[in-house]
Amino acid sequence: MKERQRNFTSNLIDGQKLTLAGWFIPSHFLVSRKAPNLISKRVRIYPKNKMISYQGKLKSDGHFWLIVENEYLNVADYRQKLAGNDLNPIWGTKTPAKNEKQTRNRPIPVIARTGQKYFVAAETLHFRQLPEWTAITKKHKLLYTGHSIVYSRIHTYRGIQYIQTDSGFLPLLNQITGHRFGILTDQRFKPPVLEQSKVPELFKMHGVYCFTKRLVKVYQLPDLNSTIVGRLDRGSIVNYSGKLVDPHRGWLQLMVTGRPYYVPFMTRFPNHENEYGYEITGSKSVTHLVQPWSFTKASHQHLLLNATAAEKKALSRLELKLNQVRTTDSIVVGLINDTHYDARQSSDSQRPLHDLLLMAHFAKTQRFDAVVMNGDLVDGNQILNRTIIDTADAVAALHESHVPTFITQGNHDDNSGFGRYLNGLRNEQVMTEATERKLHDLQWENLLDTENQFYGKYRVPGTDVTLIMLNTFDIRDASSKTYFDRNYHDRPNGIHWTGILQNIRHSRSRITTQQVNWLIKTLNQLAPDEQAIIFTHDSLRSATDRQAVTPFWTYDWFANNQQGDYARAYQTIVAHRQQIIAVMSAHTHVDDWSKQDGINWVTTTSDITNRRKSARLDSQSIGAWDVLVIQPSQRQLFRLRYGWQDRAGRLPNWQYRLFGDGTDTQHHVLAALLNQFKRQPPLTGNGFYYQNQNKQVNQQWRGFRGYFKF
């Protein structure tokens, strides 16, 4: 008679080891492995009904393992059904009896609101003498996109809200169409509503266009049936102030003596767009740019304010785990990253706003000590005014937690990928550091010890634990419009592109000498009993030499593009290993971990569901974020996961080159895929070095782990 699998219960966290010896009788043959994951090397086969002596138990990679000398034997999966008979059937740690829910015995820190209320303009606006649309000041004074100003009151007149400032009145919101002219830093979170208008949206952006293929007519309105006011001969070069799009054409807006006129510059077909000329950006003429409407595929905003049944179940499990491991001296930190929020790109890019709100409410009810958003809050593929509004909405959702909240700088957060790379060199479309800092500090004063920086430290009140934020995209705003002469469609990948992309935060990683000097000083000044946990979007691991690709556990070409004082930062952290809890990173969209040079290096997967490196059929059903429970006296870090978690996996280089790694939503046509294998012109210098390294790389990751000793 076939022996049934035996159910068991366990409260072990992934990575938590149980030192417990015993005997196990398998009900079918089992295969041991070199490491506790299903992609590691097989060691030996254990036959059915043969007694196996084990020395410990472990939960790892979502499975349950027996430790047999230097091998690991998988005896159960997540369903917790043993593949045999365990003669010492204990699979959990003892938890102390609790008469009441364990929470901290220290008060929630009081977060001071800023003394002044600010308005940040999402587009260039005219000041008005009165709260009325036509009452523009005689001097035509302007507040430029991304700039901020103190306001005192809000007025409403004929369906438009205005703010009152010392310099006049500015429009805030068109209540009829939903158009937002800017954001308020003191405003509570409100569900965003996409603008509804029958008139095509104007993408305000300046540029130069040369018509080389045909003569075009100039119209009074963006409509072929409107009045024709002139024509542009073939070879004409025009300066435009905006772009519009309808189902059949793309239009340029031309400003002539203060009045707008419109000229078609492309014909749109179902599968492609045919332009009538080429763009001139910076010092480079390019035949084709990614148009600003390319990332507008969501017709409406779909935001769930309440948790679904699956989410409620996941939150209940998370709360149960939190109560099991939390003690009165535990420090609890919420951690989320790579949300890539975008209100217009797709339903997948809209959903992370719900996850941010969900985590914020959980942090509030469970009395977290802090919340960290570890980079790539927004996707950064939109023009500046959209990015400002998306960032403000996402930050407002985070601040619903009412606990200290910190946001590290990610490579997508300032939309420089769109403004400088996807759409030519348009510095006007890139969010400046000053604007981004103002948006990140919505409602609250900066709680870090530094001023006007994206890095700093925060010591949790009443504890010996310090949170350190690093900025691995520490690159100043660009002032130059120089653009190297190159094929625009080439992708920047590796150290040989460093000189070309000096001012694009989206395309390389950097730590300045000033930041490293601050880090050295901060770690040197830690008290003997003080412990620090570090948050950084791009990992510092294996940043010590030019061969960064080879030892990097989850390959990412940013490792080759690191500049500045990465080696000094790494060496400083390692020198203080006794006081470092862990270094938490993001960016690679996969769960991973490593213990190197005495440091816990931990990477968290992306919250956005359709860009995970480990793509399974059910991975898009729910978001992913962590609750970090730090126990300083026990020198333990528990990492509790809400939602999706990755298992160990690998990705061969040939598969990556053909199909990508799941982190990019673009799908290439067959011709483009096959073109990668054609013979290319010979490379020299860094380009040759990088190509040789790139061919050797097979990506591999170790999956989720929830328990660390430090």
Automatic annotation (TrEMBL):
InterPro entries: Calcineurin-like_PHP (IPR004843), Metallo-depent_PP-like (IPR029052), STPP_CPPED1 (IPR051918). Residues 333-590 form the Calcineurin-like phosphoesterase domain. Signal peptide: none annotated. One of its GO terms (molecular function) is hydrolase activity. This is Calcineurin-like phosphoesterase domain-containing protein. It comes from Secundilactobacillus folii. The lineage of its organism: Bacteria, Bacillati, Bacillota, Bacilli, Lactobacillales.
